[in-house]
Specification:
The structure is a homodimer.
Chain A (H helix, E strand, L loop, with lengths): L2 E6 L3 H12 L3 E8 L14 E4 L12 E4 L6 H9 L4 E3 L8 H14 L3 E3 L8 H12 L3 E7 L2 E2 L1 H8 L4 E10 L1 H8 L8 H4 E9 L5 H9 L9 E6 L2 H7 L5 E11 L5 E11 L2 H21 L4 E3 L14 H7 L2
Parallel strand pairs in A: 1-2, 1-4, 2-3, 4-5, 5-6, 6-14, 10-11
Antiparallel strand pairs in A: 7-12, 8-9, 9-10, 12-13
Helix pairs in contact in A: 1-10, 2-3
Chain lengths: 328, 328
């Protein structure tokens, strides 16, 4: 019996979930829900219907896990607690500062209605969080460092696009090699924001726009760029479309810690991701988490969970026996 | 209330557990048990007693978790099922092929007596196993590669020491850079044993021993060396003691996988360890697992577990609320 999945929202993430389901023989796509007119939404999987969000409750008994692919700013804070009343759900809520509040809201309705709701799935929050937890638990006398990139930041790209005279833009966050090396040396360095990452921007401007002003506005933009060394390249729309179409990302969680009676030994734990497609990798994590949500629910668990609460074996399609024989 | 730990066996691993307990404020060392005459065993922690193994049942109500530091060949197959009758236990059983059998034996007595028994804790099996599981669950259309080293293999060092004319030896397992790079490229290479690792041996011989014969015996030794490119260096005992005293180790779990409707995107997940002291890092993992065993037991769980069955939050001393606020 395959696990029946519904997808709520069909953008990059929703399409990524659809692709991930295709790769997992035990997962089955049952329906896609959209706020758009379903007739205008074309999905990849043959024979699977697209429905308006208003119809989702008709699928209450046909879906094992509903994957919520909305945004963290306004969609998920409302959707996840609401749909946890009717379904096991998974989201990728990634506003780190608001996770505790989101957890409490979701936990209440999930518990009251006997569902499992996993929030903040993906790679950060998600796989990176797990690696921070494992490393810190194993080497408590140590420090974890997280670096992001090289990869596209949608938020920073959008911020550039809002500048007057800018037609299009793509921003890459890049970890600085010397900082990575300092951390890997075990020297436990203090690193400023500027020392950890740099930012590279590819910008298309409108005819006659003042490039000097635009470059200055980017480099001095508070929060987004002012605290970083930033490089700005002006290119044509053709170049942007040709060379910067992908959504690569990745990063590093590096933990250095000491052991021994007198802290005489140093250990370095490093986890890294190099991703061709940020949304497809995030979706792949979510697909495994959806499997876990279903298995946890079958085991009688309820309430809001994060990846911290999921025993790893729940994520795998293999039986516990196979896992021990093949992967341990 | 701290978690009360007993250590069974006081070699490199037992001493490592003792050091790890010192770093964890919520763990407390209660007693060390040895097969040797307790008067001859000197431990590091002031005020903690050393007892003969025959006395361990007197501590049935004074110990929350008993950590078993014996060897996988003969100690643990007998000890873990036996002590799981009386205690929550943790071991680092690492004979991969015999894990399913060990699991069944331990599960029986642990379940019958209402205890939690975690087997095969450490880094391989252990942290490396977890990374193989997570990566395979997230990117099922992919391949996991495990590399070990650079590090000392005790088994291979012992094998050299058994050769006639050899006084002492130290063997390093070294992953081959070109193999690592091929895997990181995402090309999913087929790699032979010889292509993945090489072996470097530092050997001290007796006066007048035939070095040519010894080198030949090492390089042609079945299973241990014959399938690898092996380098042999003859050095003095002084050099061995001066330059090769440590027990460093480490390695890499690298998983490359494809996503996308037509598998058009490649992702690389890499987990690596660089360890000054193999037994101290293993011990540090075990200490975190001992905490988890106690917390799982308090939550009503029983039976044999591996790290696959431990929800990550159990390993950390932080509360679920703190974990979500600080690490997610």
């Amino acid at each position: 019996m395959s696990i029946k999945i519904g997808i709520m929202g069909y953008g990059n993430l929703g399409r990524g979930i659809e692709c991930a389901i295709k790769q997992n023989a035990d997962l089955e796509l049952v329906a896609v829900f959209s706020r758009r007119d379903p007739k205008t939404v074309k999905i990849l999987t043959e024979g699977v219907g697209v429905y308006h969000v208003d119809e989702v409750l008709n699928f209450k008994d046909k879906i094992d896990v509903l994957v919520l692919c909305g945004g963290s700013a306004t969609d998920l804070p409302a959707q996840t607690p609401e749909y946890a009343k009717y379904f096991n759900v998974v989201d990728s809520f990634d506003t780190h500062a608001k996770i505790p509040e989101h957890f409490e809201n979701v936990n209440k309705t999930a518990k009251e209605n006997g569902h499992v709701a996993v929030i903040s799935s993906g790679w950060d929050p998600g796989m990176f969080s797990l690696n921070r937890l494992y490393a810190g638990a194993v080497l408590p006398n140590g420090t974890s460092y997280t670096f992001w990139g090289k990869g596209v930041s949608q938020g920073h790209s959008d911020a550039i696009r809002r500048i007057d005279g800018v037609k299009d833009a793509r921003q890459y966050t890049i970890p600085i090699d010397s900082a990575l090396e300092a951390v890997r040396s075990g020297s436990d360095p203090e690193l400023s924001t500027r020392e950890k990452h740099e930012r590279e921007c590819f910008v298309v401007v409108e005819n006659g726009a003042d490039k000097q002003r635009i470059e200055n506005e980017i480099k001095t933009m508070p929060n987004y760029f002012a605290d970083y060394n930033t490089t700005v390249h002006f290119i044509s729309q053709e170049e942007l479309d040709r060379d910067h179409k992908g959504i690569p990302h990745g990063g590093f969680v590096i933990h250095s810690g000491k052991t021994g009676w007198n802290q005489e030994n140093t250990h370095i734990i490093e986890y890294s991701l190099k991703l061709d497609s940020n949304p497809e990798f995030t979706s792949s994590v979510i697909a495994a988490v959806a499997r876990a949500a279903h298995k946890m629910h079958k085991d009688g668990l309820t309430g809001c969970k994060t990846m911290f609460d999921i025993a790893p074996s729940y994520l795998s399609p293999l039986t516990p026996e196979d896992l021990r024989a093949k992967l341990l």
